[in-house]
Amino acid sequence: MKYARLTKEQFEELHQEFINFLATQSITADEWKTLKEEKPEVAEEELDVFSDLIWEGVLTKVKYLEHISPKQLMLFHITDAFMELIAIKVEQDDIDITTAYGYKWLQQNLHDDAVNLYTSTKAITDDRNKDLFILIQQGAVITKGELYKYFEDLLSK
User: Fold this and answer.
1) How many Å apart are CA 45 and CA 26, to the nearest integer?
2) What is the DSSP string of 68-132?
3) Is the same domain home to 70 and 116?
């Protein structure tokens, strides 16, 4: 398995897609029921293969990721060749940028000495999707890039 198995909730959400997947494997509903009962290891493999297919499809479309923690904001823009990072670190003890107050403080104090801004660019490796999956496992979420674009615009001024 290249990524991670989908959760029960994700499988439920993708119920029709899973049925279609089984159909491409020439597995009927009755055969799937029998497979689960008599050869659970084969059924598990099918769940893993389907999970990897879904992850691969999702990750291929990712253009932006965000990872926000109380003291740090990491914004990623992923192109075909590069992963660009805008990182913002807050060094003020009483500020938590995951709160509305903390985020507003950050917006108003970007040029404060307690705020460090970093940018970086890294070439995409041979396994782009695996790199993105690792970031997601570490807490990054897929976004449309509004925050990245906002800070990119601020940094270009």
Assistant:
1) 15
2) EETTEEEEEEE-SSEEEEEEEEE--TT--TTSHHHHHHHHHTTTSTTEEEEEEEEE--TTHHHHH
3) yes
Residue 47 domain-assigned (yes or no): yes
Residue ranges of alpha helices (H) inside the chain are 8-13, 15-24, 29-38, 40-61, 100-108, 128-137, 146-156
Supply the DSSP symbol for 5.
P
DSSP state of 95: -
Query: Is residue 56 within 8 Å of 130, Cβ to Cβ?
Result: no
- What the block records as the tokens of 90 is 């807050």
- Report if residue 3 sits inside a domain: no
The boundaries of the domain holding residue 28 are 8-61
Q: Give the pLDDT confidence of 53-88 residue by residue, as tens digits.
A: 999 999 999 999 999 999 999 999 998 889 999 999
Same domain, 45 and 69: no
Residue type (1 letter), 145:
G
User: Looking at the structure, do residues 92 and 71 belong to the same domain, yes or no?
Assistant: yes
Give domain status of residue 102, yes or no: yes
pTM of the entire predicted model: 0.84
First to last CA, the chain: 45
